[in-house]
């Protein structure tokens, strides 16, 4: 059953702590994306990756880091430098070029303790 | 900054009516256009995509694209209470990026 999985569903972060959000896809897609969604707002691009071992900053990359060591996996780390991390984080993938449809994972909701 | 504009709503329509959702975009180079539905607390799911000027129909949904006016719309016929959700418009920008609007909240009244 092909799709995108994200874990955990909910994540709690303490002050000064780095946390990592997981994203895995078995769709054989080359491109993967991380978005942040705040209440009443659209999706804002954090990072994207076109191929393995390559990734690009999006519009709001400060305080976040990613890696793309495998085609299937694109984890996002929210660092302590991100001062307002509370949001709904969405991972997406597409075949490659932006003409194609993006498919989304179920999301991770990050809350600050 | 490339932008996608949507009326935030809520757009309220009675059950069985046609819901019309609109979106304008600023990047004349955009080539692909998508409508996603997002229920509260859930991730977006694709409703339709459209690449060429004109209409594209899929069941109760029709997407309309006018590149000259930089305008894309979604019509939902025979609206059902289960269609109540936020509808996100997305357009491509450049080779790998997608720009999303803030969404229109649709309420279908039973």
Structural write-up:
The complex is a heterodimer of chains A (113) and B (110). Chain A has no helices and 11 strands. Chain A has 113 residues and is mostly beta strands. Chain A has strands at residues 4-7, 10-13, 19-25, 31-37, 43-49, 56-57, 64-66, 76-78, 87-94, 103-104, 108-112. Helix content of chain A is 0%, strand content 46%. The model of chain A has no long low-confidence stretch (mean pLDDT 92). The radius of gyration of chain A is 13 Å and the shape is globular. With 110 residues, chain B is an all-beta fold. Helix content of chain B is 0%, strand content 55%. Chain B contains no helices and 11 strands. Chain B has strands at 4-5, 11-14, 19-25, 33-38, 45-50, 54-58, 61-66, 71-76, 85-93, 97-100, 104-109. The termini of chain B are far apart. The mean pLDDT of chain B is 94. Chain A binds chain B through residues 31, 33, 35, 40-43, 45, 48, 50, 56, 58, 90, 97-107, and chain B through 4, 8, 31-32, 34, 36, 42-46, 49, 51, 88, 90, 92-98, 100-103.
Highlighted features:
heterodimer; A: 113 residues; mainly beta; 7-stranded mixed beta sheet; 4-stranded antiparallel beta sheet; 0% helix; B: 110 residues; 6-stranded mixed beta sheet; 55% strand; globular
């Amino acid at each position: 059953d092909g799709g995108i999985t994200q874990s955990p569903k909910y994540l709690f972060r303490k002050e000064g702590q780095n946390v990592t959000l997981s994203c895995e896809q078995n769709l054989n897609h080359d491109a993967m994306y991380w978005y942040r969604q705040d209440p009443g707002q659209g999706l804002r691009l954090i990072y994207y990756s076109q191929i393995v071992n390559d990734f690009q900053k999006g519009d709001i990359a400060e305080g976040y880091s990613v890696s793309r060591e495998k085609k299937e996996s694109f984890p996002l780390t929210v660092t302590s430098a991100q001062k307002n991390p509370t949001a709904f984080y969405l991972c997406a993938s597409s075949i490659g070029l932006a003409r194609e449809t993006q498919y989304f994972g179920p999301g991770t909701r990050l809350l600050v303790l | 900054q490339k932008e996608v504009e949507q009326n935030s709503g809520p757009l309220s329509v009675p059950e069985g009516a046609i819901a019309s959702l609109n979106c304008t975009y600023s990047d004349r180079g955009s080539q692909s256009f998508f409508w996603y539905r997002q229920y509260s607390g859930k991730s977006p799911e694709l409703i339709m995509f459209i690449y060429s000027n004109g209409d594209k129909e899929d069941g109760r949904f029709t997407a309309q694209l006018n590149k000259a006016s930089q305008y894309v719309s979604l019509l939902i016929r025979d609206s059902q209470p289960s269609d109540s959700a936020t509808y996100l418009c997305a357009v491509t920008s450049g080779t790998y990026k997608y720009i999303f609007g803030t969404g229109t909240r649709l309420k279908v009244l039973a």
